[in-house]
């Protein structure tokens, strides 16, 4: 079952702000409608123009004050927002005029019907219009020494998603063999959370069958000893999204070609994969800027991982971040996650 703490203060604040902005936009719409009637505008403009101004006002307020959508997603977000808002208005208009509130004034019908449709529209907006709200995940290693219950006690349901790191000896010869049974435990503790797996191996194919059942996304490195396209198709055949991992410390001749077939891209900002506690590489800042300037930027999610802190994420524009040491070594891990979420989305 979904723990109520998951739908906690942060989610409630998003919804409350959304409702407040929605009510304010409808009030603005109705005031403009009255003004246009007073000025003797033609009937079609009286109906359409205030509506579009209200929609535009609500969109701007939501992306700037509430959901903080990345700038490269503005056009697609506005398309979805307008489509959902216009569909909602059409349903409200038909119901108010034909079924429920025939004979009552427009203003009353608009307010009442908006309230009835609000939650349905909100869920569509979350799924489509504002799905690029930036998210914070915590990293957990598939290692026998990792205490999953202790990690849960520190962060509970505060992370937006769980990032699972699996490292084998082909990447780091000093690590123990990965403990794959930990993944089942992670899924049981966070049953409703998005689970993203990062396979750090030169030969990731052998892990796919066993680990795909717990994963929503499986990342693998561009620098593997296996065929990338075949591995990508294998992951897709399991009903899981494949993701590509690139390194800020490496040179890529054409970064667009590297990531073009993936909806999920992870940028690793440390020098040695598979080793925790490393510092963030300053080279990553220019790398992130380069990725964000790609023409197809709105078609994939960018996750940044490695050495992140409250200070350096202020300079980062991405869809998701992964944090481990910065969260778990803090005095209050839950509060630290909230701080990261606030900074990332402001």
- Helix-strand pattern, N to C? HHHHEHEHEHEHEHEHEEHH
Using only C-alpha atoms, the radius of gyration works out to 23 Å
| Secondary structure: number of strands | 8
Described by strand count, sense and barrel closure, the largest sheet is:
8 strands, parallel, barrel
Shape: elongated
Structural class: alpha/beta
Low-confidence stretches: 1-8
Describe this structure in words.
An eight-stranded parallel barrel has the order 1-2-3-4-5-6-7-8. The two termini are 32 Å apart. α1 packs antiparallel against α2 (43-66), α2 (43-66) crosses α3 and α3 runs antiparallel to α4. By secondary structure, it is an alpha/beta fold. α9 (255-259) links the parallel β5 and β6 (264-268). Residues 1-8 have low confidence and may be disordered. It is elongated. The chain has helices at 9-38, 43-66, 74-99, 106-129, 148-155, 181-189, 205-211, 228-237, 255-259, 283-292, 325-328, 333-344; strands at residues 135-141, 161-167, 194-200, 217-221, 241-247, 264-268, 301-305, 320-323.
Overview in brief:
This protein has twelve helices and eight strands.
